[in-house]
Amino acid sequence: MLITGASSGIGAATARAVAAQGAHVLLVARRAAALLELAAEIGDDGGLASVYPCDLTDFDAIDELVAQVLDDHGAVDYLVNNAGRSIRRSLHLSYDRFHDVERTMAVNYFGPVRLTMGLLPAMREQGFGHVVSIVTWGVQMRAPKFSAYIASKSALDQWVRIAAREARGDGVTFTSMRFGLVRTPMVAPTEEYEGRRAMSPEDAARAVVRCLEERPPVWNIPAGVVGEVVNFLSPRLGDYLMYRYDQMAPDSRAARGG
Ligand SMILES: NC(=O)c1ccc[n+]([C@@H]2O[C@H](COP(=O)([O-])OP(=O)(O)OC[C@H]3O[C@@H](n4cnc5c(N)ncnc54)[C@H](OP(=O)(O)O)[C@@H]3O)[C@@H](O)[C@H]2O)c1
Question: Quick check: CB of 10 below 6 Å from ligand 1?
């Protein structure tokens, strides 16, 4: 099983959880030292983990990763597209920051699509594979201040849903997981989230494991479904509610450049 973004948060917790269930877990992220530390911890607990450092914004590096993984293991049975980057910043603070759009697309969309396309042929050939992609309830809520981030996650959400329709005949399935707030280093810079109810990385990992076992097309939190229904039934009401919410929730110091 290959997990991207395994050096931290949901990815690291998922790696521990699947290794405890006997999977040989391939750990991918940029920070090699953190991956080696996690692999050693998994090894000490009786599990098996291998480390493949890779920057998922670098297409050549992804192609090398795919070649190495296929050479070492043949096919990958399970892929968890978890690595990601979130940006929460209002549009009016973003006019001269087009790189926010480029950076989120690079790691949240182009990277996982390139990796999945590299690993998919071997999965289809062996007649089995499951791909879990960690997206966000934002694809249903369309929350203000997250235009770059949510658009990149929505692109991945759509891409895997369509890939699922093409690959199901070959035994390959896909799950999009639309997580709400999870208490990880990603959300630490946002003061707005302090004290908010959030999942722990361990609970998030348990949900990922369930999706690896049960292979549902999508996994939602209830609030995401409510948001999706409101946005579908009454887009005007959805826009109004989110407009009011946007006014009440200021940009973080980090987003303002503090
Ligand atoms: N936390 C939440 O509330 C929340 C909610 C919904 C969805 N999500 C999604 O959940 C996923 C995991 O996030 P998290 O909350 O666990 O955050 P996190 O602790 O910050 O972990 C992010 C992971 O992505 C990796 N990563 C980032 N850029 C990379 C790159 N260019 N190449 C390779 N790896 C890269 C990081 O590793 P390196 O720095 O070592 O490369 C790290 O392991 C993300 O896709 C995020 O969008 C999170």
Answer: yes
Does a structural domain hold residue 258? no
Query: Does a structural domain hold residue 255?
Result: no
Rounded Cα distance between 139 and 120, Å, is: 25
State which H helix or E strand residue 239 sits in.
helix 235-248
Query: What's the pTM?
Result: 0.97
Number of H helices, E strands in the chain: 10, 7
CATH assignment of the domain containing 216:
3.40.50.720
Structure tokens at 102: 């480029």
Catalytic residue among 109, 149, 193, 243: 149
Provide the domain count of the chain: 1
- Find the domain containing 106 and state its range: 2-248
Q: Establish whether 109 is a catalytic residue.
A: no
Q: Give the pLDDT confidence of 184-231 residue by residue, as tens digits.
A: 999 988 888 888 899 999 999 999 999 999 999 999 999 999 999 999
Say if ligand 1 is within 6 A of residue 101 CB.
no
